[in-house]
């Protein structure tokens, strides 16, 4: 028995291969993501942070890209003044005016509560100053008039203290302003200044060399903090879409934008799901590298808003999220979602060739495609299939005597109306040979008379061999090497006639249904003439010299229609050991060399959450389709994005309605 | 069911024709009407999903996500496959779903067995889309 995914096929189907990051330094973007992934360790586990150090600038060995990143990071997290339009010198004291505190319960002390107010401000500010928890010191304070406290703090502490504007101190809401008078924050600043602020954030967080937009740790961003962006739910939810809008405005064309930004990091943002940042997929649909590490994603479901987005995503970093523990096989989902995803964290999950090609079915199908069923016993059906198609191409007369006896039936029908594969330029109009194809085609839709039907029904090895000799020579794709061109299913079939007569109720056999393709060859030159698709159904039972006899053999020949319909939605690139032995054996021999396993015996795994049956899901698709007017395919996508919660699907539809292409809707 | 029950068993080719005509006509108008064609030992393999028993099969077929469907049989062939008069039927054709203008190709293999009352039931039914859309 050959293991699923023989060595050759295994490597082409994206077997796991650790990839050294050093090998990638010649690639834009990839390099960035490597360093981003590495950086993920910094701060939590320094030991695993890899070469270099956080202060990469001091290390001569650190490559320039990561050096720049570290500088950028330093700038981003610590020193807003470096690029701020209103620079203040670090360390310089700035005065802030506090009012409203005189109403507090603490104000009936000797100092009217000023001492406890200052302690409270320092403590709160320290707690709010991010993970560093640096102490915030109020250097000077004085009371002016009846109700105004003026404090002096180092300029770098100003934003964090301003964030406490409106906070309740001992039962009284306090107001904090710069002495210069102007209230800070989004509430007080006009639209123009907000746009300027967001532009500043983007400029500061963008590296043109590495084409990285670093939106990591936004909660610690001093500008955003100063603007009190994350203080209220309303501003938090508006922030990211606004940021994306401002980003969009920086580019004249989509191509320009796409070329400028290849990578985005959203690391360290405590994101439990994508609802806050989902607009990234609309703004940067061509993104190649995405860092989502150090967030709070608990499963792939929480990322489902980006399912089927980012069609060119090459590298995804998802480390340090709860899903690693909670859903260890998450890589399967991402493979399914992103047809060109090559690297997941530091692991190569698709070969470069496969990723370049993209491996998702582009055709919209109303039903989930599942991996085929293959119920074999002792490799009987598998051996038969392998031998049969090799023999059919190489030596039909011998094949007929091996498997056909006086009770074996063969007939074929030409389906002249089958649609051609629109994606294939090779599927030129199918001309059918009147002698070879049409004369013996037993299409009961066309052939009405009994005698004509009888002469097109071939029984016994001689008759079978004779009609086979009239059909053009063929070459079928290799079952192992070109497994994706085949769809083979096999089921046990009781009650198959027993020609020996020993078992009047029949014996157990198999019903084998095969869909595939072949090329027809010129009889003399053996040059390829036509490419066709075929469907072939066999009933086989015990008997004959090989132990297997053909009871029925029915062949349909049609125009080449492509193999998109066989592409299972669940791509299984990993060799699983859990596959049942009998079925695995069958799958292997019959050519499941490719990862997609055309005769892959893996039980069907629809991408449905627990508790939702396939039937229920299909019902939901139907209902969503009815109510929204979308096509079945889009309705299904829509439901998938909301985790098959029907109630949410209609809301999700409304949210994206304006952005849907016309083909999303059933044409009137 | 009367027209189907009237099918004579002497001509597997005719039986197959009448069966498929009846089957798709019923499927396209009222899927629940297919109940009479399946029994408890019947098997349906729909896009590789195995289902057994008439009730489960009808449940499956009626829950398919479309409201309107039309089968167009392009090729049909049948062979006797069982000493007691069983028939193996292979169909290929096109499916039009709802308002979708582009048909999908499908193939379907039926194993028909005599029901002992002068008619047939579907013992095995293997459905596959072979191309998404043209």
What would you call the shape of chain B? Answer: globular
- Give the biggest beta sheet of chain A: 8 strands, mixed
Most residues in contact: chain pair: A-B, 74 and 57 residues
Oligomer: heterodimer
Q: Determine the structural class of chain B based on helices, strands and strand pairing.
A: alpha+beta
Question: How many domain regions of chain A?
Answer: 4
The helix tally of chain A amounts to 21
Largest sheet, spatial ordering of strands of chain A: 1-14-13-12-11-10-9-8
Large-scale geometry of chain A: elongated
Q: Mean of the pLDDT scores of chain A?
A: 73
Number of strands of chain A: 21
Strand arrangement in the largest pleated sheet of chain B: 2-1-6-5-4-3
Our Rg estimate of chain B from Cα atoms comes to 14 Å
Q: Find the structural class of chain A using helix and strand composition.
A: alpha+beta
The CATH class of the largest domain in chain A turns out to be: Alpha Beta
What report would you give on this structure?
The complex is a heterodimer of chains A (668) and B (134). Chain A has 668 residues and is α+β, with helices and mostly antiparallel strands. Chain A has 4 domains: 24-61 and 191-296, Leucine-rich repeat, LRR (right-handed beta-alpha superhelix) (Alpha-Beta Horseshoe); 85-188, RRM (RNA recognition motif) domain (Alpha-Beta Plaits); 380-559, Nuclear Transport Factor 2, Chain: A (Roll), CATH 3.10.450; 577-664, Helicase, Ruva Protein, domain 3, CATH 1.10.8. Chain A is 30% helix and 16% strand. Chain A has 21 helices and 21 strands. In chain A, the strands form 4 sheets. Chain A has an 8-stranded mixed sheet with strand order 1-14-13-12-11-10-9-8. In chain A, strands 15, 16, 17, 18, 19, 20 and 21 form a 7-stranded mixed sheet that branches. Chain A is elongated, with a radius of gyration of 34 Å. The relative contact order of chain A is 0.10. Chain B has 134 residues and is an alpha+beta fold. Chain B has one domain: Nuclear Transport Factor 2, Chain: A. Chain B has 3 helices and 6 strands; from the N terminus they run ααββαββββ. In chain B, a hairpin with a 6-residue loop joins strand 4 and strand 5 (104-114). The longest helix of chain B is centred in the first third of the chain and has 18 residues, at 12-29. The radius of gyration of chain B is 14 Å and the shape is globular. The N and C termini of chain B lie far apart (35 Å). The chains are: A alpha+beta (668), B alpha+beta (134).
């Amino acid at each position: 028995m050959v293991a699923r995914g023989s060595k050759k096929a295994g490597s082409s189907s994206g077997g796991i291969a650790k990839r050294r990051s050093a090998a990638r330094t010649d690639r834009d973007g990839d390099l960035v993501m490597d360093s981003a992934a590495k950086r993920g360790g910094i701060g939590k586990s320094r030991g695993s942070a890899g070469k270099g150090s956080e202060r990469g600038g001091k290390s001569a060995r650190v490559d320039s890209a990561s050096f720049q990143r570290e500088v950028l990071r330093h700038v981003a997290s610590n020193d807003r003044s470096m690029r701020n339009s209103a620079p203040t010198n670090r360390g310089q004291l700035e005065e802030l005016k506090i009012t409203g505190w005189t109403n507090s319960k603490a104000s009936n002390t000797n100092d009217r509560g000023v001492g406890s107010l200052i302690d409270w401000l320092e403590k709160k500010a320290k707690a709010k100053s991010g993970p560093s928890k640096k102490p915030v010191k109020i250097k000077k304070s004085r009371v002016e008039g009846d109700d105004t406290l003026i404090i002096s703090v180092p300029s770098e502490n100003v934003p964090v203290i301003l964030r406490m504007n409106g906070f309740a101190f001992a039962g009284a809401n306090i107001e904090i302003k710069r002495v210069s008078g102007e209230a800070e924050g989004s509430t007080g600043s006009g639209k123009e200044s907000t746009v300027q602020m967001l532009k500043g954030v983007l400029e500061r967080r963008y590296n043109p060399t590495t084409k990285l937009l670093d939106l990591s740790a936004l909660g610690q961003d001093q500008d955003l903090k100063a603007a009190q962006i994350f203080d209220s739910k309303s501003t938090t939810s508006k922030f990211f879409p606004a940021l994306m809008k401002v980003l969009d405005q920086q580019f004249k064309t989509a191509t320009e934008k796409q070329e400028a930004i290849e990578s985005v990091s959203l690391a360290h943002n405590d994101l439990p799901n994508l609802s806050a940042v989902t607009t990234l997929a609309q703004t940067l649909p061509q993104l190649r590298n995405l860092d989502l590490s150090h967030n709070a994603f608990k499963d792939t479901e929480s990322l489902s808003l980006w399912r089927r987005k980012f069609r060119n995503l090459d590298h995804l970093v998802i480390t340090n999220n709860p899903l690693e523990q909670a859903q260890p096989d998450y890589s399967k989902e991402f493979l399914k979602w992103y047809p060109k995803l090559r690297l997941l964290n530091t692991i190569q999950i698709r070969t470069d060739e496969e990723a370049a090609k993209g491996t998702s079915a582009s055709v919209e199908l109303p039903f989930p495609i599942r991996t085929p069923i293959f119920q074999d016993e002792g490799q009987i059906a598998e051996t038969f299939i392998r031998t049969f198609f090799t023999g059919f191409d190489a030596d039909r007369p011998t094949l007929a005597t091996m498997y056909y006896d006086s009770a074996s039936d063969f007939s074929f029908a030409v389906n002249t109306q089958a649609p051609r594969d629109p994606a294939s330029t090779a599927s030129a109009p199918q001309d059918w040979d009147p002698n070879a194809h049409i004369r013996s085609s037993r299409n009961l839709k066309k052939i009405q008379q009994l005698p004509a039907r009888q002469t097109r029904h071939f029984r016994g090895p001689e008759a079978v061999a004779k009609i086979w000799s009239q059909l053009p020579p063929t070459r079928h794709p290799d079952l192992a090497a070109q497994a994706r061109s085949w769809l083979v299913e096999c089921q046990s079939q009781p009650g198959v006639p027993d020609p020996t007569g020993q078992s009047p109720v029949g014996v157990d056999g198999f019903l084998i249904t095969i869909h595939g393709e072949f090329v027809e060859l010129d009889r003399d030159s053996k040059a390829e003439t036509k490419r066709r698709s075929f469907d072939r159904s066999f009933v086989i039972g015990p008997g004959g010299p090989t132990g297997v006899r053909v009871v029925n053999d029915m062949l349909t020949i049609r125009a080449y229609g492509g193999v998109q319909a066989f592409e299972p939605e669940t791509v299984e690139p990993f060799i699983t050991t859990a596959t049942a032995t009998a079925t695995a054996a069958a799958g292997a021999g019959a050519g499941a060399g490719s990862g997609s396993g055309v005769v892959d015996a893996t039980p069907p795994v629809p991408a449905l959450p627990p508790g939702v049956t396939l039937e229920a899901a299909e019902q939901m698709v139907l209902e969503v389709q009815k109510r929204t007017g979308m096509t079945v395919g889009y309705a299904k996508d829509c439901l998938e994005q909301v985790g098959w919660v029907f109630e949410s699907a209609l809301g999700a539809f409304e949210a994206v309605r304006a952005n849907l292409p016309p083909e999303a809707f059933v044409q009137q | 069911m009367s027209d189907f029950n009237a099918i004579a068993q002497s001509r597997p080719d005719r039986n197959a024709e009448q069966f498929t005509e009846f089957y798709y006509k019923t499927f396209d108008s009222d899927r629940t009407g297919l109940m009479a064609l399946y029994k408890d030992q019947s098997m349906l393999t729909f896009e590789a999903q195995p289902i057994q028993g008439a009730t489960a099969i009808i449940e499956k077929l009626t829950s398919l996500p479309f409201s309107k469907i039309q089968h167009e049989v392009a090729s049909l062939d049948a062979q006797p496959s069982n000493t007691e008069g069983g028939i193996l039927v292979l169909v290929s054709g096109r499916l039009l779903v709802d308002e979708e203008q582009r048909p999908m190709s499908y193939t379907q293999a039926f194993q028909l067995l005599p029901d002992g009352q002068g008619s047939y039931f579907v013992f095995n039914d293997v459905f596959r889309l072979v191309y998404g859309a043209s």
